[in-house]
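Problem 12. The chain below contains 190 residues. Write out its predicted structure in token notation.
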Amino acid sequence: MKKIILSIIAVAMAMIPASAGKHLSFKGVEITGSKDEMVAALAKKGFRYEEENNGVPLVIGNFAGYRDVEVNVIPDFSSNEVIAIRAEFPVRMNWVKLEKDYSTLKELLIKKYGEPAEVTEVFRDGPHDESAKKLVSLIRGNCIWESVFVCKEGKITLYMKHQGPICCVCLYYQDNAGSKTAEKAMLKDI
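Solution.
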């Protein structure tokens, strides 16, 4: 009887996919563990701790060829376990630079993860020929520029963000382990 139970357990363990224990990575660091552990791991990658705002640490460093990228380490507030990472790229005051950042990062993600699962790049207030009008559309909330990449470990959302007249491109790494809580955190300004 003992051998049968052990055989059943062995078969069940073999059926679990190899990726079941893996997490999405940011800068080569798996998105797992406590926020303090993640901050320490990112410090080893050259990021410097800046501050903590409402329980969310902010570190700054180089990422994807950009300097001084602001990275929020987002925990599940009930467990303090990291569930997501949000990287904000430099602020841009014109559409051409903003779109260049978005396109550059999108190409890097396509090389690593393949084509995006979802792409939404629209102006809800009509097409615009001029860069200034495109930027105003984003600032007014009438522009959605977003690409979602899905992999076994989670999903990565590339999007343009505005906070008043301040605009930038963001990457949001959402680990599968904390996906429901992470989706809520993405929408919240940290």
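Discussion. The chain is about 30% helix and 35% strand. Students who got a different answer should revisit the alignment rule from Section 12.3.
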